[in-house]
Design goal:
256 residues; alpha+beta; Jelly Rolls; eight-stranded antiparallel sheet; four-stranded antiparallel sheet; 14 strands; 25% helix; globular
């Protein structure tokens, strides 16, 4: 299958709005593989919870789960994160150097009661003291048809209000970092399964409840233009190279 290429209009739209929707960007086999990985991650995570190995404020039993880092053990995820689609998007919107910062499943269980409020992804980085780094690029992959009923993303486009900086974020009663954008009403982004939503780290967004009978499955990854390091020069999250000098790292290694 010919790799999905970004058009000049799409590049302009991202720069203008702070986000881009790539509908049905994944071929059926890739989508099927990621769905299987999401189901595997859910079973694994609930097993960890049952064994009391995983306890934190962001994961609510029967509500929603953030499941990070599975690409370290699951080849299908690692392959997706190095795919031509990731390379194309990172080269366009991160630059000639790009590093995987985080990857995680975001799973909303049926009839959950905990929404995700307005926030900027770079707000999380800033809240931990690393806001001086350039904002990451977020790629949110819908593994199911995403609708208003099951928790579609809602965004505040840059053209409605310019967001050149991070708003102060605080943790709400659910442990999520949120920011005050007033009584904002955003643009809802319902998308079919296999779509990818690209977002600037400065783009305000939120998502509602899953009122459906099924799990709403999504996979989120972020790429940074350089590793985000702590005071001891250690990565605060992942720092897996995707691009070096504009060349995909895997392709560069093959040519050696």
């Amino acid at each position: 299958m010919t790799p999905r290429r970004l058009t000049p209009d799409e590049r302009d739209a991202f720069a203008r709005e702070g986000y881009l929707v790539m509908e049905r960007a994944l071929p059926p086999d890739r989508l099927g593989a990621l769905r299987a990985e999401a189901d595997h991650a859910l079973a694994w995570h609930e097993g960890e919870i049952a064994a009391k190995k995983t306890v934190d404020r962001l994961n609510y039993v029967g509500e929603h789960y953030f499941i990070p880092g599975r690409s370290r053990e699951r080849p299908a995820l690692a392959d997706y994160l190095r795919s031509a689609l990731m390379v194309e998007c990172a080269k366009a919107f991160v630059g000639v150097e790009a590093y995987l910062f985080i990857e995680l499943f975001v799973l909303k269980l049926p009839h959950n009661r905990v929404p995700f409020g307005w926030h900027q992804d770079h707000g999380y980085v800033d809240a931990y003291g690393y806001g001086h780094y350039a904002p990451n690029l977020s790629l949110w992959t819908a593994l199911d048809d995403v609708t208003a009923e099951n928790g579609a993303l809602e965004v505040l486009p840059f053209t409605e209000r310019r967001f050149d900086a991070v708003r102060a974020h605080r943790q709400d009663e659910h442990g999520n970092f949120v920011a005050d954008f007033g009584s904002a009403v955003g643009t809802l982004l319902p998308v079919p399964a296999g779509s990818v939503i690209l977002m600037s780290g400065l783009l305000p967004h939120r998502s509602g409840l899953n009122r459906s009978e099924g799990v709403r499955r999504a996979y989120l990854c972020q790429f940074s233009p350089r590793p985000v390091l702590d005071a001891r020069d250690r990565p605060i999250q992942m720092a897996v190279p995707l691009l070096r000098d504009g060349v995909a790292v895997r392709e560069a290694e093959k040519s050696r």
